[in-house]
Amino acid sequence: STIAETANYLLGVGRADCTGPVAQVPLMGYANPDQVGGGLLTHLYSRAFIVADLDDSRRVVFVSADIGMMSQRVRMEVLKRLKSKYGDLYRQDNVILSGTHTHSGPGGYFQYTLFWITSKGLIRPALNAIVNGIVKSIDIAHENMKRGRLFINRGTVENSQINRSPFSYLMNPASERSRYSSNTDKEMVMLKMVAEDGQELGLISWFAVHPVSMNNTNHLVNSDNVGYASYLFEQEKNQGMLPGEGSFVAAFASSNLGDVSPNTRGPTCINTGESCDNPQSTCPIGGAAMCMAKGPGNDMFESTRIIGQNIYLKAKELYEKASQEVRGPLSSAHQWVNMSDVSVELNATHTVKTCKPALGHSFAAGTIDGVGAFNFTQGSVEGDPFWDQIRDQLLGEPSNETKACHKPKPILFSTGEMSWPHPWHPDIVDVQIAAIGSLAIVAVPGEFTTMSGRRLREAVRSEFDSQGTPGMNVVIAGLCNVYTHYITTYEEYQVQRYEAASTIYGPHTLSAYIQLYRGLARAIATNTTQDLPRGPEPPLFNVVNMTLLPALSAEQAPAGKAFGDVLQEVRQQYRVGEVVEVTFVGANPRNSAENATEHNFLTVERYTNSSGSWHTVQNDVSWDTRFYWSKGSLGQSNVTIEWHVPPGTELGTYRVRYFGHYKKRVFITRTITVPFEGSSSAFEIT
């Protein structure tokens, strides 16, 4: 074979379920305490990619999981599991764990106190599902390593983003802004993986957009717009397989999405319909609470599909045309850093410092993608005395040092000075870069804004250039390893909108990260990663399960009914485009999550005359099916299943089936979990 067709690496891909409990657990992202899980639109997955040298001397692992963000707790537990299984093969430096940033996945997997407030504490089943899913996806990739080749491609995605803090962006120097055609990064970077024998293995796409096409009124667990893109790509490549099955893995990973919304119709007053694209994102009637951004669709489900499809179509085009091969050595660098105490040399005469973590007033305002629980307005540089008093009583006044350090941020929560029952925010943060030949993946612990990301990429690229490794493709992987909210530029920080109020280590956070990532890039370029100080190890708090979630208790069916009985039957006939709906006597879906890693709650089955048997054509991974759970009283609950019959559905006879588990009382103190199923009557698609 010619040189061009020779494998350069060993490659492995894997996908595993990480959905967890789909009921009663608060969804992570909007910090809206009313937004708790009430069912399932599609499963959440961890997607793992392993690249090794042909002589297997070095490895790099990249994982993108359909969760709000990585947490330090998840990372530490995953690495502990990998160490016990594989020894020193998978380590702090060569494993990158990234979250897609969907806002519709279960929360409760954090050890720092702030995140307990909106996710009802630390919820072990949610944490376990994520840790198990990530480890399993890595196991699958590990067991299926093949000789293969990598290709990189990049292109522009249109009509899929807006900058949601354009007034902050305009604070950046005009000379800097004039170098860019847009106030968002429209570029998608894609890594394509192909085995030596021609088998297509998978791809990773990095693109900066918030997965918030599903808004904060949604109660169905799902992976949002980027998850829909993964679904479309995997369905196309894994032909003839049910959703969630097949070996091809397509990850749509996060990047510097801090100020980037998919809600392209922009901020609109939901009560009057007029624009609220002003520096405070506030409406004449009803204030900031009425200002919400709209997606391109008629509802959030349609908007999710439109944005997801845009992303998928660009990825497909880049994948098909990818010809630039990635070659060269593998390398990885990682450090733990105390981000509350970094000295940054801005120039020869000027040194500044980062701060103990704190959140500003505009943090509580939320964004145009999801307003805050209180009607604070964005862009608050004046403290509100009422909330200040509540804060002082509950949480204590911030120290003068912290106040001065964070200026001009008015501090709402001085989280870095709160340590009961455990610290409220991390001090010890991961910085990490992995290089695969000419591709440098910069793993960042939060949400960099558009301009912050541009500055970081440029700094890392120029560091590689000056150390004799020119022409690196530098990509930012967002929401990696530990969550530290947002990272704005120094200029954006001055106006204190939501992203700036959530830049927890103060105005010089970005400068500190640039200094740190330059150091990692230098170590990789000069082959001195082994000399990097490891830094202070993060704490692992002894929290087993600290949750306000209601306990799972015995359940019962209504009088004269059994679990899985139909309460509201399907119609006899439907057309393509209509919604098939059936309601069953149900049980708490948490029973199923705690009983199995990958539970399928439903199937849509078609009757085949020739064989006289039913065949599954859809499951609960499908974006065409929706599973709703509603709790009644006296241990009773209902499940409603919808099938939105898609274009191209084969005509014929169908039925919908439901699979659940209920808690049955056996002794006064003991319950057991009992599986059950139900089925609708047969109906025709005509």
Automatic annotation (TrEMBL):
InterPro entries: Ceramidase_alk (IPR006823), NCDase_C_sf (IPR038445), NEUT/ALK_ceramidase_C (IPR031331), NEUT/ALK_ceramidase_N (IPR031329)
Tagged with keyword Phosphoprotein: no
Residue ranges occupied by any Neutral/alkaline non-lysosomal ceramidase N-terminal domain in the UniProt entry: 9-515
Gene3D superfamilies, per the entry: Neutral/alkaline non-lysosomal ceramidase, C-terminal domain
GO CC, alphabetical: cytoplasm; extracellular region; plasma membrane
Textual note on the cofactor: Binds 1 zinc ion per subunit.
Enzyme Commission designation: 3.5.1.23
Residues forming the catalytic site: 261
Keywords for this protein: Hydrolase, Lipid metabolism, Metal-binding, Sphingolipid metabolism, Zinc
Gene Ontology molecular-function annotations: metal ion binding; N-acylsphingosine amidohydrolase activity
Pfam family for this entry, one: Ceramidase_alk
Catalytic activity: an N-acylsphing-4-enine + H2O = sphing-4-enine + a fatty acid
GO biological process, alphabetically ordered: ceramide catabolic process; long-chain fatty acid biosynthetic process; sphingosine biosynthetic process
Boundaries of every Neutral/alkaline non-lysosomal ceramidase C-terminal domain copy: 518-685
Cofactor(s) needed for function: Zn(2+)
Residues noted as binding Zn(2+) in the record, renumbered to the chain: 101, 210, 447, 486
Family, similarity comment: Belongs to the neutral ceramidase family.
Protein name: Neutral ceramidase
Record lineage: Eukaryota, Metazoa, Chordata, Craniata, Vertebrata
